[in-house]
Design goal:
The structure is a homotrimer of 138-residue chains. With 138 residues, chain A is α+β, with helices and mostly antiparallel strands. In chain A, a hairpin with a 2-residue loop joins strand 5 and strand 6. Chain A has one domain: Sandwich (Jelly Rolls), CATH 2.60.120. The first copy, chain A, is built from three helices and eight strands. In chain A, 25% of the residues lie in helices and 38% in strands.
């Protein structure tokens, strides 16, 4: 069994931001030389998500709107922010969007459905963040 | 290390529908001849989910009601639908219910807790859809 | 390829409760002697979650408050409870928080980001519950 590990660094510009990391994960898979296996992609931060959805900017705004309407940023709403933080909402938003995705690797490719794209979702950005890729297989 | 890949095709009849795929995943595991490993089951569509929960029709209606009350179908609410789609809600509902499950394989069986059943959750159906099963192990 | 399986038993005292299981998972990894691979940690119950987030009690209360405000316990609200259950809300809360996490194993350690801690989240407790750990790799 082979294994491969790589971190991707992301320079987030906004508090809330979705960044398409599909090609970076594809590059990591090529580098790994793994043909058949599983590929884990996870946010290394607990106010961020990795998720698979559509590469469509209107939908991304719909996600942001839903999250803001249902889990508002307002720092006064969260006990967590009594510790001096302002990101209580970001920890909850990340649970909705998920921490990680696990993808099949088949024939040396990410085994995607027709419209699947991998996103890093940041909910407390404006700084450098990391994504972990771990691939195991043969 | 062995690996096994199989697609399940599902003929969805309704826009929103939950389909128990447990026995199909069990059949795939038998076919794979893998005894110890991990089994990934994911929706290949970005308006659908694979999740594990109870085989109880009242609960399924509770899920549908919660999703509709909190992420309404109304196509006017979503920017995504300006592209001509009507499924903005379905992309968000899928994030709540999740894209995939990863199951342990132990002693040649899916290593389930007492009531775990695997479901395909469709939020934009009335057509043929696919689920991917990938199993790796020995 | 090696594989390792372990169940953790948890004696939940409250209906809703979050329990840090990070050190139990680390102990299982040590016991497994696996250096490179993937580690699945899942709730074996369909009214419970395993998730990764912050070890901060104010945030845990924020999670509980958000879940109770958005998915209230009130047993009258759920069709599932017509079966005699009172835990309809717990099945839905678990979908928000997630069933499982998959972690990279690198150099014999859980490959954590800076603040990641693994939690068992119970939404229908006051009894003994189980978490499954499955690790595969070399």
């Amino acid at each position: 069994m082979k294994s491969f590990r790589k971190e991707i660094w992301i320079d987030t510009k906004n508090r809330v931001e979705f960044i398409n990391i599909t090609s970076s994960v594809e590059d990591a898979l090529t580098e790994s030389q793994i043909e058949e296996g599983l590929c884990l992609v996870n946010a290394m931060h607990i106010t961020a998500s990795v998720f698979i959805n559509d590469a469509e900017s209107g939908l991304h705004q719909d996600f942001k709107d839903w999250l803001e309407n249902n889990i508002p940023h307002n720092p006064d709403l969260y006990r967590h922010n009594r510790t001096g933080e302002t990101n209580g909402d970001a920890h909850i938003k990340r649970q909705f969007m998920g921490r990680e995705v696990v993808l099949a690797v088949s024939g040396g490719k990410l085994d995607f459905g027709p419209w699947e794209q991998i996103y890093y979702g940041e909910f407390d950005g404006k700084r450098k963040k990391r994504v972990l890729i771990k691939i195991i297989g043969d």
